[in-house]
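Regression check, protoporphyrin IX containing FE case 306:
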Amino acid sequence: MPLQQFNTPGFADDLPADLKDKWGKLISSWIEKEGYAKQSPDSYREPAPTSETEKSDFLKNGSFLVFRRLKQDVATFNAYTKTMFQQLTDTPDFQGEDYETFLAKIVGRFKDGKPVLFGDQVVPPENYNNFNFNADTPAFRLHNGKQVASVKADQPGIKCPAFAHIRKVNPRDLPTDLGKETDSATFRIIRRGIPFGKPYDFDNLDNPVNETERGLLFLSYQTSIERQFERLTQKWMNEPSRPVAMGYDMLVGQNGEEDENGIKWCKFMNDNRKTKEVKSEKTFVIPTGGGYFLCPSVSALRELIG
Ligand code: HEM
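Current build output:
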């Protein structure tokens, strides 16, 4: 069942994967390569099994689940994105930028889920996942006859910045510091975010509800927690120089360096490829709990109970 939710800063989360024709194909090739659904003792695993016992059939067809309780500080996000917007638009090169587009660039999508790469184009929601960053995406036709429009790539990150959340956690067809372009799909996770707490009242900032806790219960399935979830979070969201040196994931990322006071930065790029760095010393997402779990396959569970 497609589940469209609005997480607390007001951005659509967990967009329904409507483009099954296209993404279904991509996911299948990834499954074959990484052994997601057909995991076997000989499939790729990290760390590699060191003994025959570790190579047991128990993991076959199983997956790993990550759970994180992520508290969101919406008031701080609101206040500090305004400060960052001010820093950006104080520069003559970026004076035309509007606040909604600025916010969308931090996420990589507008509030309704439309990718920021599409700019002002009116695009039906079934096109919302049909884009790449490195190469133009050709038009194609769905089973039901609907035409899905072509999309221009944005390798330098002018429309969708290299630090945008969705670009950090899914570089799609871009080559990265961790591999060539065809490797990028192998870091993908299957994910669901469930909001908790009461929505923030943007119309009445004094509403006592704004003092209560809210955030996202984040869940993801993957073959390897180390190679997928941990790389996305530690190596890309929280690393300003990776995959490219254009900054932190300003929505979810954190700067954990002891002597840097938590300051995060990112670089916006305009049409003339002029860049401007903006900074914030605040963290908007705070992990408050979670765990790593093994989800064995039904056949493994049957084996266990005899
Ligand atoms: C409270 C924290 C978070 C917020 C507010 C958040 C918000 C969002 C939003 C608004 C989107 C775009 C809509 C969508 O595709 O559903 C998105 C996409 C995504 N997020 Fe997060 N996210 C959070 C944490 C995380 C974490 C910890 C990860 C782990 C790596 C993650 C991975 C992803 C992925 C893989 C996508 C899809 C990217 C794509 O469409 O190509 N997110 N997130």
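Comparison notes: The chain has one domain: 5-51+64-291. The helical segments are 20-34, 74-89, 99-107, 165-169, 229-237, 298-305. No diff flagged against the previous build.
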